[in-house]
Design brief:
Order of helices and strands: HHHHHHHHHHHHHHHHHHHHH
Strand content: under 5%
Number of strands: 0
Largest sheet: none
CATH topology of the domain at 15-200: Growth Hormone, Chain: A
Biased composition (Basic and acidic residues): 547-557
Keywords: Antibiotic resistance, Cell membrane, Membrane, Transmembrane, Transmembrane helix, Transport
Membrane topology: Multi-pass membrane protein
Structural class: mainly alpha
Transmembrane segments: 20-40, 60-80, 87-106, 112-135, 147-169, 175-198, 210-230, 242-260, 272-297, 317-335, 342-358, 370-393, 405-428, 512-534
Domain Major facilitator superfamily (MFS) profile: 22-538
Low-confidence stretches: 539-557
Length: 557
């Protein structure tokens, strides 16, 4: 007796009756792999304190997940198409759960990084499978609506990750942010077996020759590119970063040349000559560049400058999540009436406005100044990403839905990694420069001079700056106590500490404003390029019968 549902949708007389329940399973699966990244930004301080992580260790704890996740999606999406999309989803969820348990038990930086990398492998199976199973389960008339819900779930996970992590950290340690994945992943695996119909390429037997060489080349160039994006901006453009850049460049050229010559490539790169596909892929990457970059510095501002706890920070990101659902609902109304080009361009323009509003941030800004940009940014996500994802998935035949999901998801990861790398680098350099200028002006005005070593440490990050302020206050109080007594010494120490805190807050707030200018310019230019690329009226996806005929012709050739 077979476990769970065993009848594929193609063998059913009509639409699958429990398809919306199946979508719930797919959305739960998507939720945990996105939350695994966003929740860690909140758990990071507790991990630093508990494990004694250095800045390099912490960076790779966060990014060790991203490299295998982005690099493996394309080949694993193709394998899922051939053998079993549902099998890839269930296996990915089990790997993700096992790696999460391992991550909660280790007590070293290397152990956490290895566990996070294993979670990334699981996520690389899960992400393309969710989209390919969605497309295979829903009839074309309902697919856009289902993708809108899928996209809204991704936006929800961006905001809910910090909320869940913050709630757990109120009473538990950082390990709880790993363990919370386990019951959700197991629930998703069981739900997939009983609610999600099995699916694989209809001509899987004929597609036995998976383009493994093309898949390997994609792993090499995407993995090297992500490694370079992480290593170069954060740790300097030394031998490792330069080598990764060269490998990524050579690997990309080899990948393109191989795919152009292969009769059944893992990814037909000629698709990028189609304006709807190229424009949609670029729009997804640019949007997540802006969103992940903004999320990176907004969560830091809320915690370090405005002083919110991790839980409070998560709560205050919820307006973004709610707005994503509203934007998705508007997409269902706007796209059929005005077309994809207008809807996506409108969404990207709205997103540019949201980032531009953050250029007004200064040291006196309160949370109220962030609410409107968060809402507008959420609306923009809902407006743009659903039609783009639908267009990307509609560009692939039914036999390559896993590859289509992988292309969409790889665009998200590349964009997000670039956003954190580019905007994070701008933020760090601007903050360091601002704090150095503030210290120089204070010394020139006759104020106390911050020791060079302390200033250098404070310039590393806003968190380090606040720690230095506390230590400076202690040192001033200790030095003054023998002369003026403990009470006055404590007051002097507190005053000096507050002076440094004010300087750190101002330097970081000004850096947020400056970084937002860069983000708005990038997204604004990208909006113009995407609007140019997208056709006025995108061609309709081929019906399934036509796709199958096209595939048979390809096989004969």
């Amino acid at each position: 007796m077979r476990l769970g549902i065993s009848r594929p949708v193609d063998a059913m007389d009509g639409p699958y009756a429990r398809r919306w329940w199946a979508l719930g399973v797919l959305c739960i699966s998507l939720l945990i792999i996105v939350m695994a990244n966003t929740s860690l930004t909140v758990a990071a301080p507790d991990m630093v304190q508990s494990l004694g992580l250095g800045s390099s260790d912490l960076q790779w704890v966060i990014d060790g997940y991203t490299v295998p996740y982005a690099a493996l999606m394309l080949i694993l999406g193709a394998v899922g198409d051939k053998y079993s999309r549902r099998g890839a989803l269930v296996l990915g969820l089990l790997v993700f759960a096992g790696a999460s348990v391992a991550g909660s038990l280790v007590d070293s930086a290397g152990g956490v990084i290895a566990s996070r990398a294993a979670m990334g492998v699981g996520a690389a199976m899960i992400m393309p499978a969710t989209l390919s199973l969605l497309a295979a389960t829903f009839p074309r008339a309902e697919r856009a609506k289902a993708i809108t819900i899928w996209t809204a779930t991704a936006g929800l996970a961006i905001a809910v990750g910090p909320l869940v992590a913050g709630a757990l950290l109120e009473d538990h340690g950082w390990a709880s942010t790993f363990l919370i994945n386990v019951p959700i992943a197991l629930l998703g695996a069981v739900g997939a077996l009983f609610l999600v119909p099995p699916s694989k390429a209809e001509n899987a037997e004929n597609a036995a020759k998976i383009d493994y060489i093309g898949g390997l080349l994609s792993v090499i160039w995407v993995g090297s590119l992500i490694y370079m994006i992480i290593e170069g901006p954060h740790f300097g453009w030394g031998a490792k970063a330069i080598t990764a850049a060269v490998v990524a460049g050579v690997g990309f050229v080899c990948f393109v040349l191989w795919e152009l010559r292969h009769p059944r490539p893992v990814l037909d790169v000629r698709r990028f000559a189609k304006r709807a596909f190229a424009g949609s892929t670029l729009a997804v990457a640019l949007f997540f560049l802006a969103v992940f970059g903004a999320f990176y510095y907004l969560t830091q501002h809320l915690q370090f400058v405005l002083g919110y706890s991790p839980l409070d920070t998560g709560v205050r990101m919820l307006p973004l999540a709610g707005a994503v659902f509203v934007g998705g609902a508007l997409t269902a109304f706007l796209t059929p009436r005005f077309g994809m080009k207008i809807t996506v361009a409108l969404g990207m323009t709205v997103g540019t406005v949201a980032i531009a509003l953050l250029t007004r941030v200064d040291a006196s800004s309160s949370y109220d100044d962030f609410v409107l940009p968060l809402i507008i940014l959420g609306l923009a996500i809902g407006l743009s990403l659903s039609p783009c994802t639908n267009a990307i998935m509609g560009s692939f035949p039914e036999s390559q839905l896993g590859v289509g999901g992988a292309v969409n998801s790889t665009s998200i990861e590349l964009g997000g990694s670039l956003g954190i790398a580019i905007l994070g680098t701008v933020l760090a350099k601007t903050y360091s420069s601002n704090l150095g200028d503030a210290a120089a002006k204070a010394a020139a005005a006759g104020g106390p001079k911050l020791p060079e070593k302390a200033l250098s440490a404070a310039q590393d990050s806003v968190g380090a700056g606040l720690y230095v302020a506390k230590e400076v206050g202690k040192q001033v109080a200790a030095g003054a106590a023998p002369k003026v007594g403990p009470e006055k010494a404590a007051a002097l120490g507190a005053q000096q500490a507050q002076t440094v805190v004010d300087a750190v807050h101002k330097a970081f707030a000004d850096s947020v404003a400056h970084t937002s200018v860069v983000g708005a310019v990038i997204l604004g230019i990208g909006t113009v390029v995407v609007a140019f690329l997208l056709p006025r009226k995108a061609s309709q996806p081929q019906p399934a019968a036509a796709e199958r005929s096209e595939e048979r012709e390809t096989e004969r050739v």
